Amino acid sequence: MAAVSTDDISVYSHKNLDEPLPVRDVELLRLKSLVDSSDCPDELKERINTRLGQLDRLVNSPSFLDEYDRISRYIDWVIKIPWNKTTEDILDLERAKRVLDSHHYGLEEIKNRILEYISVMKLKSEKGEKDEVLKAPTLFFVGLVGTGKTTIAPSIAEALGRKFARIPFGGMGDPLDLRGQSRLHLESEPGKIIKALISVQSKNPVILLDEIDRVTEQGRSSIMGVLVELLDPKQNYAFVDHYVDYPVDLSQVLFIATANNTHNIATAVMDRLEPISMPSYSDSEKIAIAVNYVLPEKLRSAGIPEGVINVADDVWPIVVRPLGYDAGIRTLERTIDGLVRKVARLLVEGKITSIRITKENAKEFLPQ
User: Fold this and answer.
1) Above 80 in pLDDT, residue 13?
2) What DSSP assignment string belongs to 106-143?
3) Sign of torsion over alpha carbons 212, 213, 214, 216
4) Distance CA 3, CA 308 (A)
5) Distance between alpha carbon 34 and the CA centroid of its chain, in Å?
6) Beta bridge mates, 327
7) Sign of the CA dihedral with 54 first, then 56, 57, and 63 last
């Protein structure tokens, strides 16, 4: 526990400084010290200190412990919010292109759009407008399952040098999940937006709003209303979470949204999005992805050195389509994952030191 100075104690002037402070008083002063040394806005600090002063007058009341627990939990949350913490953007087009290419094959339209965004940021920075918020629409990736909608978002964050957080919308039915619940309710907490900022400790991260079309029918309209506020530059600079109960600036956040389709998304939300279609992959594209991305990654994950598994060229068409057509690459990833696991077992059992997958032995390693 931090030492309590006489300056802190003087806040509660009715205390007798000649006597040891009771534990409850010390705890109140500890909370005040946490608030005063935090990055919270001055107005919010004043509000909290006023509440602590009111609580101080309840030290002998039966309700003290409940009130103390409520305000200490509140302080613990709000001092963790990155009110002034940001990361420095990396505005290097060549580096950004390398990062995107290293994680994703093709997707040229999306990569070009990100490079354009970085270019505008760089020009504004060179003109001394670094802190001015770009009013670009939110990127909105729409496509079938497995086409890379979700995985492209952390790559964008890496390309920009920003922190990354993901908020899943699948099955969400209550706007309070996003906006938080009033701290008057027991066990209330901030919503997912504030929690995302706290988790990355940055006020300018990339936040993925994943599968916004999959919210429940009952909560759809109210959740869409919160999305409008999140994505509108005229509103998101003062986003109010019900639990925090104080405006939080989200204007520097780069939001990215995904969906399988746009049928269940409100028009007002669509107006604030820039839809980009995620194309289905052809067999030749899947082969390139398998050879250059998926297989090397699965080998690294399994601890198998490169070169241990060699796949014949005429086997790849079977690998990418073992059970029929699939628009994305999830089936491809599962197939290669299974192949690697089988080889890993053979290695551990000492039956092989390397192996070549051919049409003759492919059935031993691929799903039937």
Assistant:
1) no
2) S-HHHHHHHHHHHHHHHHHHHTT-TTSPP-PPEEEEE-
3) positive
4) 61
5) 27
6) none
7) positive
Q: Identity (one letter) of the amino acid at 134?
A: L
Pick the residue with more confidence: 62 or 99? 99
CA distance 52 to 67: 10
Asked if 93-277 and 283-364 have one fold, the answer is: no
166-212 per-position pLDDT tens digit = 999 999 999 999 999 998 887 899 999 999 999 999 999 999 999 99
Residues sharing a CB contact under 8 Å with residue 185, sequence separation 6 or more, in sequence order? none
Contact at 8 Å (CB) between 322 and 288? no
| E strand residue ranges, the chain | 138-142, 164-168, 206-210, 239-240, 247-248, 254-259, 273-277, 309-311, 355-357
Q: What are the residues facing 254 on neighbouring strands?
A: 206
Output the six-digit token pair for 19: 């006597």
Residue with tokens 């399994």: 302
pLDDT digits 0-9 by tens, 89-127: 998 999 999 999 998 888 888 889 889 888 888 887 777
Q: Domain locations in the chain?
A: 6-78, 93-277, 283-364
Residues 221-250: what's their mean pLDDT?
A: 94
Residue showing tokens 């197939």: 335
What topology is assigned to 93-277 in CATH? Rossmann fold (3.40.50)
Which of 167, 166, 163 has its CA nearest to residue 200? 163
Fold type of domain 283-364: Helicase, Ruva Protein; domain 3 (1.10.8)
Q: How far apart are CA 97 and CA 82, in angstroms?
A: 29
Q: Which residues pair with 164 in a beta bridge?
A: 206
- Nearest Cα neighbor of 190 from 79, 54, 346, 355 is 79
Beta bridge partners of 228: none
